[in-house]
């Protein structure tokens, strides 16, 4: 038996023990060396098996600690699962394995905020057990050692009789600038980095700055459909939101040019939220040329550029034009509860930079110093990049499952399509026929699966069409498989 077959055998054995309840959540697995000796295989075979099971969400591995079962799974192992690929009716194991391999290769080649963080309403079904609403990353994938070391470093900082710098701790601003230089193609002066309490607070801050400097409500063009929480932040800070429709390449520039005068335009060019289009470089340049000619501020929300699953990374708008105001954060890469984001002030617009700085000083510091210190430590020590490498692998497995499962169901669900899978942590599932997205959301909730209605992201009613937004960042592979089965069942029933 070749190496692949031996690895698949180990994977099938452990996966089967999880499914039949022999192994349960939290159970420790033998070390790779001990299990290899017991099974009579090379240690590398067990290492590869553990890595695959980790990526599938069955177990969690930690450096220097025993691998443990991530979650209990009800039900038998799907037939053919020994191959280590999603098993889907109508799709052969060989073709599915080829798809998974291609996806993994694309992820490894990738170099690498705007999704809405979901809230649980009082009306949410208490029986819901699989939360596939967008906005939640794989928080528990963070290395325990790196996470604890970051908070120890924050706790070791000396106490001070002083107020926090409203612009943010200098070490964090320096590390953000360095990270942008490595990953996004531009390395701003750290003095142009301003810390904010999440993307929404960053957009609220910018809107307030524009309102004060203009002496009136700023008119801001936004993508339609688009980032609903960001839209609310703009309106709450005294701005006016004007929706601009999208085409397959992102914001429709013809409509933008034909519109009334705008003070700013807010875009998610790297991975449009929620539809997932990537704005080509030619359109990016055309947008920047229009903005320069009209004096319009371009606000770039670079919310999940770390997770590019297919194709080569595209440059940030701020790497093409120093007049762009760049917004990013750590909600999709670490934990949304950190509430830590940043604004990179435009070097080519000193009026905007001064206005945002004044607004930040007036509001005061909004992110606790220990949080800033911990994030700075994660960036400085390389823990951030190690974490990204780990979760990219996990997300590749989940994306492959979505593609395989929905491809196999296309024959039974008219017009079934999954979009937004080139990057990020969610997919948009659409279909043809009279079934409304809200009805699908309700029917899935009754089956214990939570997703979001695509219509909730519209600025203009009907701009998005019918669909649901399904997040896969925080769910295990087995849970995602059950969620997809429920979705196909609901859509197939009509």
Verbal overview:
- With 494 residues, this protein is of the alpha/beta class.
- Helices cover 43% and strands 13% of the residues.
- The chain has helices spanning 3-19, 32-39, 43-56, 93-109, 144-155, 170-183, 199-214, 228-236, 253-258, 281-294, 317-320, 350-363, 369-380, 383-409, 437-446, 477-493, and strands at 59-62, 65-69, 130-131, 193-196, 219-224, 240-247, 250-251, 264-267, 297-301, 325-329, 341-344, 417-419, 426-430, 449-450, 452-453, 467-471.
- Strand 8, helix 10 and strand 9 (297-301) form a beta-alpha-beta unit.
- It is globular.
- The two termini are 46 Å apart.
List keywords for this structure.
Aspartate Aminotransferase, domain 2; Aspartate Aminotransferase, domain 1; alpha/beta; 3 domains; Arc Repressor Mutant, subunit A; 8-stranded mixed beta sheet; 494 residues
Tell me roughly what share of residues is in helical segments: 40-55%
Tally of separate helices: 16
User: Which shape, going by the Cα principal axes?
Assistant: globular
* Poorly predicted runs: 74-115, 117-128
Number of strands: 16
Q: Might you state the CATH topology name of the largest domain?
A: Aspartate Aminotransferase, domain 2
- The overall number of domains is 3
| Overall radius of gyration | 23 Å
* SS content category: alpha/beta
* Name of the CATH class of the largest domain: Alpha Beta
What is the fourth-level CATH superfamily of the largest domain? Type I PLP-dependent aspartate aminotransferase-like (Major domain)
Rounded mean pLDDT score: 85
CATH architecture of the largest domain: 3-Layer(aba) Sandwich
């Amino acid at each position: 038996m070749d190496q692949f077959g031996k690895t698949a055998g180990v994977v099938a054995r452990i996966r089967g023990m999880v499914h039949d309840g022999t192994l349960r959540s939290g159970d420790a697995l033998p070390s790779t060396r001990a299990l290899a000796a017991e099974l009579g295989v090379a240690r590398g075979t067990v290492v590869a098996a553990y890595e695959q099971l980790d990526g599938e969400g069955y177990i969690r591995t930690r450096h220097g600690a025993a691998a443990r079962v991530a979650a209990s799974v009800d039900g038998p192992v799907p037939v053919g699962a020994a191959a280590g690929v999603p098993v889907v009716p109508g799709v052969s194991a060989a073709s599915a394995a080829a798809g998974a391999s291609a996806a993994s290769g694309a992820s490894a080649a990738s170099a690498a905020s705007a999704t809405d963080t979901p809230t649980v309403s009082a009306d949410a079904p208490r029986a819901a057990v699989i939360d596939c609403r967008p906005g939640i990353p794989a928080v528990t994938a963070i290395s325990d050692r790196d996470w604890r070391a970051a908070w120890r470093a924050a706790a070791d900082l000396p106490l001070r009789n002083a107020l926090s710098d409203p612009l943010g701790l200098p070490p964090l601003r320096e590390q953000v600038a360095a990270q942008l230089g490595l990953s996004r193609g531009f390395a701003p002066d750290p003095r142009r980095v301003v810390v904010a309490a999440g993307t929404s607070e960053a957009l609220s801050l910018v809107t307030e700055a524009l309102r004060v400097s203009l002496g009136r409500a700023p008119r801001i063009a936004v993508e339609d459909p688009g980032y609903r929480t960001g839209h609310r932040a703009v309106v709450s800070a005294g701005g006016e939101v004007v929706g601009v429709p999208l085409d397959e390449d992102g914001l429709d520039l013809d409509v933008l040019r034909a519109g009334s005068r705008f003070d700013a335009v807010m875009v998610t060019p790297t991975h449009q939220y929620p539809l997932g289009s990537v704005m080509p470089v030619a359109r990016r340049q055309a947008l920047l040329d229009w903005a320069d000619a009209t004096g319009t501020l371009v606000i770039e929300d670079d919310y999940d550029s770390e997770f590019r699953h297919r194709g080569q990374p595209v440059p940030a708008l701020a790497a093409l034009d120093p007049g762009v105001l760049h917004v990013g954060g750590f909600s999709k890469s670490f934990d949304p509860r950190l509430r830590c984001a940043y604004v990179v002030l435009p070097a080519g617009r000193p009026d905007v930079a001064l206005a945002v700085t004044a607004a930040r000083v007036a509001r005061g510091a909004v992110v606790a110093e220990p949080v800033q210190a911990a994030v700075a430590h994660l960036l400085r020590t390389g823990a951030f990049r190690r974490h990204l490498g780990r979760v990219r692998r996990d997300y590749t497995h989940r994306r492959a499952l979505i593609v395989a499962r929905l491809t196999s169901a296309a024959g039974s669900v008219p017009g079934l399509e999954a979009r937004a899978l080139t990057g990020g942590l969610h997919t948009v599932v659409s279909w043809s026929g009279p079934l409304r997205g809200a009805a699908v959301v309700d029917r899935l909730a009754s089956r214990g699966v939570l997703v979001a209605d695509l219509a909730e992201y519209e600025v203009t009613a009907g701009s998005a069409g019918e669909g649901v937004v399904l997040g896969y960042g925080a769910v295990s592979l087995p849970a995602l498989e059950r969620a997809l089965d429920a979705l196909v069942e609901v859509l197939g029933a009509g």
